[in-house]
Amino acid sequence: MRLWLGGLSMLMALAAGISATAAEPRYRVDRVVMLIRHGVRAPLDGEAAAAKLASRPFPRWSTRQGFLTPHGAAALRLIGAYDRSRLIGQGILAKTGCPAGGSVSIWANTTERTIASGHALADGLAPGCGLPVRHRPDGQMDPLFDAIESGQVPLDAPRAVLSINRELQDGRALMRGQRPAFATMAHILGCDRGPRPCRLAAMPNRIEVGPDGKGIRLGGPINLASGTAQVFLMQYAEGLPMAEVGWGRATAPRIAQISSLHAKMFDVYARSHAMAPRVGGLLARRICAALAAPTGPKLTVFVGHDNNIAAVTALLGVDFRIAGYGANDPPPGGAVVFERLRDVATGRHSVRLVYIAQTPDQMRRLTRFGAQARPVLLTLHMRACKSDICDLRRAGAALQSSM
Hints:
Elements (H helix, E strand, L loop, with lengths): L1 H22 L3 E11 L32 H21 L13 E5 L3 H14 L31 H11 L11 H11 L16 E4 L6 E4 L1 H18 L13 H18 L6 H17 L6 E6 L1 H10 L19 E9 L5 E9 L2 H6 L10 E5 L8 E3 H9 L3
Parallel strand pairs: 1-5, 2-5
Antiparallel strand pairs: 1-6, 3-4, 6-7, 7-8, 7-9
Helix pairs in contact: 2-3, 5-7, 6-7, 8-9, 8-11
């Protein structure tokens, strides 16, 4: 009996040891790199290309064209506070006090909306700490975010146009499955009825060399609708009275539907085989360097634009859809997050890719996140990898082979 009890005790101790070992996480996050789109801004000059088709003028904004709005800054501080809690749980940020010098790096493009977004996000990540937001001097293009425009990455426009037209079937592929979205766009514009209704879906797309012979230009229905759809989204996310959001016709479900028209623009300018490496290659390599460096900041943040996210995710073979938006349409203030994982047993590094973003309703209402409300957290799967966790070298090769 004593022998049996002793054996039972040994088995129980062994089982307890196994349970304790199983409870230990296999991976620990030891570095994070975030690529963030700026927050809610006022419309850009000429962004609503379909304005000429609208039955009424677009409402005026109190914020300067293209600038981050105070509401947009508030939404960024809220998502930054959520990021802070998540990063504290991962051990990237300390629970109390300000981050140690050099442990956090925030780099923004040189536009007002990206710099201001960087500061708003920094306020959420480390309240009262005044984290610096670095960027190139005002008026100077940053090749990380504007690789072609800065002249750092050459573009053979005729060759690119030939490639894009071949890939997108002379623009016809852009229209696949988009008729309902175009019908909704026409309804919001108020041009779907009358003696001469606007039949956007019946128009052809044209992908051609730009007037200067150096760039590419998209004409046709996607060009008309893409920026216009973004303006309606910004109206809604900004919290404008619903009577001013698409003149009361742009409900949340309709905005989600026409969001796909905005995303289709990136199929030409950022996600196509010809453009993705040129638009996103330099930034992808910088992300790779930040992940692979033996020493460096525990948190690195790049604050850019929707086309930067579109290009980098295309290089990785990633598709995504955030609640409230169309497929592959990067939300304002949303972040593609690269988490470097260390295998506790072997010390080897891997990468996990997630998308963190607010829904349009969360931005509109300035939702505070906690146990009762969370932003969207979507795990992404890189094409080069067989699972959601990808070997660092394999992920790095995908980023490095972009040009």
